[in-house]
TrEMBL record:
Domain of life: Bacteria
Signal peptide: 1-21
Source species: Acidithiobacillus sulfurivorans
Keywords: Signal, TPR repeat
SUPFAM superfamilies listed in its UniProt record: TPR-like
TPR repeat spans: 407-440
Protein known as: Tetratricopeptide repeat protein
Length: 553
């Protein structure tokens, strides 16, 4: 019975390992899936498109209004009237004194026989003779609406609104707004607003009316008066912040936003406004703190939030927060050119493969040379030789962006050719890099290493014909290796002895020196150096052993 159980265990173990391998293979690294979050949460895209459509529609409507005069103060059009405008009727009141019974009978007859102009004249006469009669004002509104006598209708609604008749203020405000009469809108709504009794919708109408007259200061005065009656109100504080910003009063606008944050729940949209104002004052740390405070409340829909958070986090050197924001934007497919640049710099030192993918995406979308050269750099660092070769060969023959005029291109070409052991191509590429920039020590270093690796003694001897005892610090190591390749062990030993003299020599350096001494004909010195390395190694092992032993052992 033991054998079947053992066999079953092995089978189950194999199946588990296979499943785990399949799961790990199926998992796609984040940098290979740009736009993946947008597939799960594309609501922000629809909202963004809708906002753009609304903005376009508003712009078109505004242009049409300017062209036709519709929606503007049509009584002062310079002789140009909109198509819907009907000039006021010239009315001659009926003679004689007002008689309730006679006027009632005549009005009904005029309506039944379709004589609307006579009905309008009669109602107008009644209002003139009996100004306090609400019924006749209502009838004048009715027939005036049919005849499109908007100014007369507005006057009647305004009269009734001033006397607080039900529904009159709303009707008067609506008509005054349609006729672009901000003075009347303000006259009707400002007293109610100052008393703290105005709805948010009417506040919007009132603020817009002040805007038409370029009087945001008066709107702020109404808001302040209302806040004294009602206490803090989120909507009014937000409007005060907006109006103060319009007036260039950054401190007042910021104070209003901070009032929202103090008395109500902080939200990403308020944090964005607050951070922008703080940034205008150069207070980037405070701006970032305002954003970071509500970061957990921001959803994937809040794309503007992540854009601004990324910029501020980068500004204050909080690279963890910057990475979090930039990665979200990348995975949403909403990263700008600058977002991709920052993301490359954030991941490049730790994950060249990710930096390569981001750089390639930037090159594909924006065709900006920065992304091309970053792609070359990180393809080399990630040892993605196939990708590097494809990038190098993707430059068309006519090279419209003049990419081959940069030494970086030829350095990448040399790196790729050296990796695939095409040493003649590598030598030519490094030579081109040095032709473009003769002082490029990276090109010199890479060229020497390539010649060392390929065993091209003839070229090494030609390059090292000058003074090799005082090479630049960046070329000291490769020069030493080149001298060893040429058999100049004494000169190589001289360089090795001068390399970083202020630091304590490590085991690897001592072993290298021992090899050089032996090659230079001094096996005794080589033996002594190796003995020192052995002694140091034994001492380290014993020290580590006793550190791992507990007292009771």
């Amino acid at each position: 019975m033991t054998t079947p159980k053992l066999l079953l265990g092995i089978i189950l173990l194999a199946v588990g390992v296979t499943a785990q391998a399949q799961d790990s293979a199926a998992a796609t690294p984040w940098w290979k899936a740009p736009g993946s979050l947008a597939a799960d949460d594309a609501k922000w895209r629809a909202e963004d498109d809708k906002q753009k459509d609304n903005a376009d529609a508003f712009a078109a409507s505004l242009a049409q209004s300017i062209k036709t005069g519709k929606g503007m103060g049509y009584l002062d059009q310079g002789g140009v009237s909109p198509s819907w405008y009907k000039p006021p009727m010239l009315v001659e009141p009926f003679p004689g004194s007002y008689s309730p019974e006679l006027y009632e009978l005549a009005y009904n007859v005029f309506l039944k026989t379709g004589q609307l102009k006579e009905a309008y004249r009669l109602a107008y006469t009644a209002v003139v003779q009996v100004p306090g009669n609400v019924l006749w004002r209502q009838r004048l509104i009715q027939v005036g609406t049919w005849l499109e006598q908007r100014e007369t209708v507005l006057q009647q609604w305004q009269w009734m609104a001033q006397r607080d008749l039900p529904g009159a203020r709303a009707a008067a405000v609506k008509l005054a707004a349609a006729l672009s009469r901000p003075d009347i809108v303000i006259q009707l709504l400002s007293p109610v607003a100052r008393a703290g009794q105005l709805s948010d919708a009417d506040w919007k109408t009132l603020i817009y009316a002040y805007g038409q007259l370029s009087e945001p200061d008066k709107a702020i005065a109404d808001i302040n008066q209302s806040l004294q009656h009602t206490g803090p109100k989120r909507f009014l504080l937000e409007q005060k912040a907006y109006l103060s910003y319009q007036r260039g009063e950054i401190a007042q606008s910021l104070a209003a936003l901070q009032g929202v944050e103090k008395h109500f729940q902080a939200t990403p949209d308020i944090a964005i406004q607050e951070a922008r104002l703080l940034s205008m004052q150069g207070k980037y740390a405070e701006a970032f703190a305002a954003m970071d405070h509500v970061r957990s409340k921001a959803s994937l829909n809040d794309v503007p939030f992540w854009h601004l958070l990324a910029v501020l986090a980068w500004e204050v050197h909080d690279h963890e927060a910057a990475y979090d924001a930039e990665k979200k934007l990348y995975l949403l497919g909403a990263a700008s050119q600058y977002d991709l640049q920052r993301l490359i710099m954030l991941v490049g030192s730790k994950n060249p493969e990710a930096a390569l993918a981001v750089a390639q995406r930037g090159w594909k979308i924006y065709q900006f040379p920065y992304f091309y050269f970053e792609s070359l750099t990180y393809a080399g660092q990630a040892h993605e030789w196939k990708t590097l070769g494809q990038l190098l060969q993707s430059v068309p023959a006519h090279d419209p962006q003049d990419l081959r005029s940069y030494a970086t291109y030829w350095l990448a070409m040399g790196q790729w050719a050296n990796a695939v052991e095409n040493y003649p191509a590598a030598e030519w590429a490094y030579a081109e890099a040095l032709r473009l920039n003769p002082e490029d020590e990276i090109a010199k270093n890479n060229l020497l290493w390539m010649l060392v690796d390929s065993g091209n003694v003839h070229a090494l001897r030609a390059l090292l014909a000058g003074d090799v005892l005082q090479p630049p610090e960046s070329l000291r190591n490769v020069t030493q290796n080149a001298l060893e390749r040429l058999g100049h062990n004494t000169t190589a030993l001289f360089l090795a002895r001068q390399n970083l003299p202020s630091l304590k020599p490590n085991s690897l350096r001592l072993l290298n020196e021992a090899s050089l001494w032996e090659s230079a004909g001094s096996p005794g010195i080589a033996w002594s150096l190796r003995q020192n390395v052995i002694a140091d190694s034994l001492s380290s092992l014993q020290k580590n052993h006793w550190q791992g032993v507990t007292p009771h052992e």
